[in-house]
């Protein structure tokens, strides 16, 4: 089976990303309804787009938390200060824990770098060199249920980099317990 005028991969990606003008959406809808080849290709792109859409980055802005709540995810928030060791239980009925990291002056900060490490080995699990932050809300870490496969002894190292290049560092020790 073949198509004499196939829809380009770029157009299908833009279609599923919602980046096309209404006339182009109509054109792709009409063609896909009558073309099994393009319909199958569109389904493949849709599956990839849905998979990517479901990914939640480890450091999120407050707007992302609001969007996740609007999608029906069950979210619980907690707040942590640097230098304290506070264990957290990830309850079985929760989809995401938001760890709000506060206590670091972010008022003159240009950029925040977040490093997630295993405390016992110092291994780096996640590096976010340009993490979103809010001067008043701090840094929001989205801890997800599939993180249960990671070691439980977690450190969050936050480097606040000012426009002058000066850095301030805060460390948050947050061991995790996941309930099933």
**Helix count from the secondary structure assignment:** 4
Q: Give the strand content.
A: 25-35%
Low-confidence stretches: none
Q: What class do helices, strands and sheet pairing give?
A: alpha+beta
Distance between the termini: 48 Å
Q: What string, H for helix and E for strand, traces the elements in order? A: HHHEHEEEEEEEEE
**Cα-based radius of gyration, to the nearest Å:** 21 Å
Main β-sheet, in a few words? 4 strands, mixed
Question: What is the number of beta strands?
Answer: 10
Shape: elongated
Helix content: 25-40%
Round the mean pLDDT to the nearest integer and report it: 89
Structure write-up:
Helices cover 27% and strands 32% of the residues. It is built from four helices and ten strands, in the order H-H-H-E-H-E-E-E-E-E-E-E-E-E. The chain has helices at 9-17, 22-34, 36-53, 62-70; strands spanning 59-60, 75-80, 88-90, 96-101, 109-118, 124-128, 139-144, 154-162, 167-173, 176-178. Helix 1 crosses helix 3 and helix 2 crosses helix 3 (36-53). The protein is elongated, with a radius of gyration of 21 Å. The mean pLDDT is 89.
């Amino acid at each position: 089976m073949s198509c004499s005028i196939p829809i380009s991969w770029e157009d299908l990606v833009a279609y599923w990303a919602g980046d096309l003008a209404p006339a182009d959406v109509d054109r792709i809808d009409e063609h896909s309804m009558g073309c099994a080849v393009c319909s199958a290709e569109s389904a493949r792109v849709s599956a990839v787009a849905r998979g990517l859409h479901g990914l939640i980055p480890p450091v999120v802005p407050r707007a992302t938390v609001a969007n996740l709540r609007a999608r029906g995810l069950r979210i619980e928030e907690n707040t942590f200060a640097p230098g304290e060791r506070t264990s957290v239980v990830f309850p079985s009925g929760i989809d995401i824990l938001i760890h709000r990291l506060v206590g670091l002056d972010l008022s003159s900060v240009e950029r925040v770098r977040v490093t997630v490490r295993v405390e016992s080995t110092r291994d780096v699990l996640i590096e976010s060199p340009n993490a979103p932050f809010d001067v008043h809300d701090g840094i929001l870490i989205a801890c997800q249920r599939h993180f249960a496969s990671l070691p439980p002894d977690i450190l969050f190292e936050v480097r606040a980099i000012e426009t002058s290049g000066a850095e301030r560092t805060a460390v948050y020790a947050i061991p995790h317990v996941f309930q099933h």
